[in-house]
Structures are given as structure tokens and as C-alpha cells.
Predict the structure.
Amino acid sequence: MITDKPSLRAAASGSFLAMACVGFIASAPAAAQTADAQDGDKTLGGMTITASAVDEDSPKVEQAESPKYTRPLLDTPQTITVINKATIQQQNLLTLREVLSTVPGITFGAGEGGFGYGDRIILRGQDAKNDVTVDGVRSGAFLNRNEVYNIEQVEVTNGANSVMNGGGSVAGTINLVTKRPLSNTQTILNAGVGTDNYYRATVDSNVRMNDLIAVRLNAVYHQNDIAGRDVEDYKRWGVAPAITIGIDGPTSLTVQLEHLDDKAMPQYGLRYYANNGGFLDEFDRGGYYGFRNLDQQNAKTTSMQGIFSHAFSDKVKFRNLTRFEKIRQNTVTSQPNGTFCLASTGLQPINIDGVANSCTIAATATAPAITVPAGYYLPTGGRGVQRFISNTTHYTQSDLSAEFETGGIGHSMVVGVSALWEDYKQYQGTLPRNPDGSTPTFPFVSIANPEAVVQGPAGATYG
């Protein structure tokens, strides 16, 4: 042990001295060369050490993407939050809802008012579901934007900014900037496997073909079950190719295409009874209380975009953006409504008046009285409601930006013109219907096991 201690100290000291020596050579190579030159025996070559402690993919963004913003974010008199691809990748944010959850002042509605089939964004207390733009172009479709594989950055502008984004921007806007070809060649592959049938793979490949052309391909495949649920799941795939002619040149043309196919099951969850303590133990926490073979929440997005830009000089630039987008949605939802008869009491849950009513539904002029067996519920209203929605957008915008001086004072000017054509169609109806068009009487459903056909007392239909 006596002979080992000096060895350890010598090793540690040697490592420390080696690091100190490198630092000395890097900081004062001229002195060493001068000394050796005077001796005339040895001549040491120069040494260059290059290192960086800053990650190249920094979350910091200096400027908004739109040419309408003439100054950096620091000098723009408005609150603009930018979440770039570095933040999205580092935090593994997969949906627009997850991205916006990192921004203060944004919340999400839970389907109030019947809006349960899309991301109901609430920005600073105002409804902002229609204030979403893609590359500065209004995207009026109200849907669940479940994928950000082709998003370069998300820009959230707080406050009225109709000058930048047009009418309707009361509380602010949310701009999604898509990925475009880069000047360097790189390929990024990501894959993940997890519990609840989680599988995800993405590719982001950019190739510089020559001095003039660069191409980029983004693609994704994703599927997963909802943790703790028996039926709900997600499954989607998408592809987004793009090409730029004139990369890094004064004149360039970028053409982008994208197709995204998103399939999912609506999530209505469980009934909540505040006067009974919240969720009741008789309900199946993972059970689906809708029509699992009928309900769906599917969307298909197809878009094509062209961006032409030309720099007349360092101070005068022109850009035109033309975009076509078509989004089709097909949703079928079934709310967990009805008359529930608890097995533990043989009565309905306590209502807002503090009364547990009987499980007998009074007769009407067109229907006899119905008694719901204990442990079952009779579904009513809001079952199998289908919405087929189609949004088609044609948009073109031209911007001319210039910088000039008058009397020693610098100016930045942007002049633009745009045109928008939007077509919106919605067809809605209830799928379960009798031949005469009336709503049928649904069979009784087990509260404890809503996904199976469980036979109850005779004289009624169960399903």
C-alpha cells in the first residue's frame, strides 16, 4: 500500500498537468516558438484547438419565419413564443396539444358545446381554434392535430395581430412552420417501442443534390393504445417530400407536398357524479361506453405548397407563397349518456338535488314505461352521431420587402397582397335509425362490463 499511493498521485498529477499543458500551448504558442527559435535546435509547429460547449441545435430562435416581421424577436414589440424543432425533439413532443402545453396562457377545452372532435385551443381566455395558420396561411379546419413530424417550429403570438395574420386574431395566433430543404446533407432516423402497443418511426432526410437543388423527405408511422383503456387507440402515417431549386441562391423555388392519414377512437371517458364522490366503483375504468365497432375519429390531410423568392439586392426582396390544402374528417361519436341503475342500490346515482331516483322511466304518449335492471343502463341520446367535414383552401400571397434610409433614418417596409378561397362542408346525422327515421330504443348495457353482451333478467334486450 505504501508503494501504491505515490503511483496514484503521480497518475492523477500527470493527467492534470497534461490538461494544463494543452491549455498553455493553445494560449501562448508564439512564446514557445520564440524560445525554441533562439536555441536553434527545434522548431514547433502551431496548434489550433476548436471546441464548442454550445449545442448546435439550440432552442433559441432569433426571428419569426414570416417576412412580414422585419425585426428580430428581441426588437418586436409583441410577445412571440417560438418552439423550434430542437425543443420538440428534446422533449419528445408528438402532437400540437403537447407542444402548446409548454406555452403559458394556453389551455384546452374538454368538448364543451359539442366541440369534442378537435383541439379546442383557448388562448388567453379566448377561443383560438380557428386562429391556426400553416406557414402563415389560415388553416380553418377544426381537428385534432395529432402529428408534428413535418413541423420545423411553432410560433405563438399573443395579442391582436391582424396586420400579420388577418382577421379573427383576437387573442393571438398559432403558426405552424413546415420543414423545407436545407443546404447541407443529413439524415435523422428515430424509432420507439413501448408498452400499450406503442410503435413509432420517423425519418427526416435532407440531400444536397448539387449546387442548385436540395430535396428533403419527412415520413412517420405511429400507433399506440391509450393506457388504462380497453378500446381507444391511435394509428397514423404521413409523408412529406419537398424540393428546392436554387438553394442558397438569390432566386429559389420550393415545392412541398404532404399527405397525413390519421385514425383514432374518440375518448369520452367515464361518467362523473360529483354528488356521489366522483367516479363510482361499479363502473369499469377501462370500459368503453360507446359503440366500439362504429365510433371513429378519422382525418386525412392533403396539401401542396409552392414558395418563390427573389432577391433583387441585399435590401429589396420578393416572395410569393401559394398553398392548396384539403382536410377531410369522418367522426362518429357516442356519448356515455343514459339512465344508470346501480347494482349496489337498485337506484340511479344521486342527482344535483340530492335525490336517488328509481330506475323506472315513466311512460310517454309513444312509449311504455321501462324499468332498467340493477347493474345496467339504458343508453339515450347522442349515440352514433356522425359528422363528415370537408375543408378546402386555396391561398396565394405576395410580399415585397425593402430597407432604405431617408435623412439618415433607416426604414423597413413590407408591401403585400393576398387572396383566399375557402370551401367548408359539413354533413351530420345519427346513424342508428328506425325505418321511419326515429331514434331506436337501445338495448340495456352492463355498467361493469360495457363491452360485452351480458344477459340480464328476461323480457328485455341486452347488448
About this structure: The radius of gyration is 31 Å. The chain has five helices and 22 strands. The domain at 73-264+295-337+381-432 is CATH 2.170.130.10 (Ferric Hydroxamate Uptake Protein; Chain A, domain 1). The first strand starts at residue 80 and ends at 84.
